[in-house]
Amino acid sequence: MPESFPMITDPWFYAAAFPAVLITGMSKGGFGPGTSLIALPLLALVLPPIQAAAIMLPVLCAMDLAGLWGFRGKWDRRNMKIILAGAMVGIAIGTATAGYVSDRGVQIIVGAVAVAFALQKWLKRGPELPAQPHLLKGLFWSACSGFTSFIAHAGGPPLQVYLLPQRMDKTIFVGTTVIFFAVVNYVKLIPYWWLGQFAPGNLATSAVLVPVAVGGVYLGMWLHHKMSDVLFYRIVYIFVFIVGLKLLYDGSGLKLF
Known about the structure:
This protein is mostly helical.
């Protein structure tokens, strides 16, 4: 049975949660992809990490509904067949190993992949043709994404390693990731419930955050359509690099103060 947490009324929690959820919603809407990883560290300042993750998952699901409406019909069907299959494998592995896997270990691995991927892009010389969808690569990276999403809500970098080199239209790229993570997050509800991660107080707290989350998604969509494809992909690679560094820092357990 889930632990009986009461609904959170501490104003310091909402002082951290509102900006965290707003930024996450903007990322889901296509502005600043990857910045959604800031949410859990911010909430973890005022909550145990497990409770923070349990509160965030229903909020992410609400964001996904707004994103599905905003990017309806704008996604890559060929890639989707590959990456959703891989994600289900990753979630299954995450469910089976949830009691044995170190969050910090996952953060270090994902962070190292993200940093290396961005550096490889920036240091590579000569013209680069867009990559094509690839069955084995897609299954591998999407399985990694499903696994890291389940363990630490950090599924973005592995999926971006697969999708970004294809250099698809920015709206198709965001729409594809929106649908992917909508499916992943709703599937995660089942094992999260089975593992006892939900409690009435946590769900009530999630409900308070939903309007901010949905507002952030639509603000992100508006900003997304103001950018060119070139600027969009430059921003994405920068955020992949920053997120990678942040994950490496979190996984190291170092403290600045």
